[in-house]
User: Fold these one by one.
Assistant:
Number 1:
Amino acid sequence: MILPIYLYGQPVLRKEAEEVPADYAELKQLVDDMFETLTVAEGCGLAAPQVGKSLRLFVVDGTELKEEYPECANFKQAFVNPEILEESEEKIAYSEGCLSLPGISENVVRPKRVLVHYYDIDGNEHEEWLEGFNSRIFQHEYDHIEGNVFTDRISPIRRQFVKGKLVNIAKGKTTPKYRYKRN
């Protein structure tokens, strides 16, 4: 089922998400719905808060980006209760956008590599280093489960430039091409 994507201004986007319980019966269905929603919206990542669920869960699908970013060739998975354990000192700036902030893109500086810990939907535990664009997608979605959006990471002057766009999204003056929910 295609879920509505919550737009900037929805309180769930600013709340630190709760752990997914080990016995969460709806997990597989929610993950399937999130992947379907992500595909229709043409994104590469979607966090549970973006579909109104305050859970530490996100899905990623970077496979469409494999030509430009070979590390994304098989990067399609769900991350349950993820954590960032370590970050590289080397940082990289790249222009990011977000399904919850349609029409806005800004350069965001993030660590090039991150060591992550998470569970898959079958409850298997994983720990691995993510690099390049995989790392960026993971970090962007991780911000969502921490109650942050990518514009929180841009300079104060750039934030002033996008403030009007953010207000327009929150006031319903922006209409994305996918199913959405606003205040």
Number 2:
Amino acid sequence: MKILWIIGGTLAALILLYLFLLFPRVGARRKYRAFLGQIYAHRGVFDNERIPENSLPAFQRAIRLGVGIEFDIHRTADGEVVVFHDATLQRMCGDPRRITDLTLDELRKMSLLETGEKIPTLKEVLDLVADRVPLVVELKGENTDTSLCGAAMPILENYGGRYCVESFNPLLVARYGKLAPHVMRGVLVTKFKRDGEDRGALGFILQNLLLNFLARPDFIAARHVYGRSLPVWLCRKLGAATVAWTIRSREEYDACRGDFDAFIAENVKELLK
């Protein structure tokens, strides 16, 4: 009997510890209704032939459709904030260097997929959008350097329009939360090993949202097939909003609609029919 009490007590303690680590910031659905029930165009509405992802024309297309926009930001070597997804320039510009190692002037000399479109700055994107649609801004960075937050926050706060932030890196989410606690913030999550990216122990920690105690997110942005995974489901039950990414068909959208409060998607015209 004593052993059973010990086992039961240990399990109860582990469950309480897990809930403490997992617990989101409460009240997101009430405070941030304007962001929920929305479809956000993933990196704009692009085709990567004439109109590349994360370009001003891709964002203009999304505005014309009346959908929100999701895009990614990096800090350049000279402290500017630019809109770009990958860590390196290889896929989009044919250059193997890291975007954070180059200055804005150096980046301006490059073309996105040889279309003539340039990598835009965060301010250029915000000036274009002008609060016509809500924004989801992904903070990019895989280490402990959180300087991106300090560079981006004044630009976003001066914007005055509707925006929220998210990141796979809980340290970036936590830092932005300290700089701008009134801004809706979210943690991105997936099952890394199942998706072909083995991050070892760190992957286990991230996919189980064990660093939520640092970030205290308002929403969990999960790959659309993982809306019913235990950590995402628990966070929703505890009051967090949930966002699905990246939906690419009507079938995927219909399959996950009941599990999420907002959706990041490509082929958004199909979803709007």
Number 3:
Amino acid sequence: MSWRLSMLFTVLLLTGCGGEEFQDLRDFVKNAGADMRGKVEPPPDIKPYEPFAYDNSTSLPDPFKPRKQDTRSSNRSGQNQPDLNRPKEELEDFPLESLKMIGYLNQHNVSHALIRSSEGKIYRIKTGNYMGLNFGQVSSVSETEIKIKEMVQDSAGDWTERESSLQLVE
């Protein structure tokens, strides 16, 4: 009888432990996202494409032909062309971005600026000197800046004047 009693006790003990393992965790995972709903905004309204007809009767320029600047702001290739035969000055070998104004001098009522090149060499310039790669001529020198008029050529071959400046570096 003790053998049957121990067998019955073992069966009851095993039956009590035979439930599903981690059932509470499975229930939590199953129910955790039940009340959550993602909100996706509706896509924006798509406007239909409206083609535009180009014709020769309108005053609009042809979008497939190269445009030239207005002749009032641009100069013809013969006008304002820099003197290409003029001997170049030393500072014309450097782009303006690589030059720095590091000082100012006034000798005999003539204003001079001290310029340091990218190579570390120091130059002295005054109004009328040339500098930069675009035929830049110094138009004025003050205690804080140098104003330069450059001549640049556009794709059509026209020469245009452009103002640039170098600020004193402290």
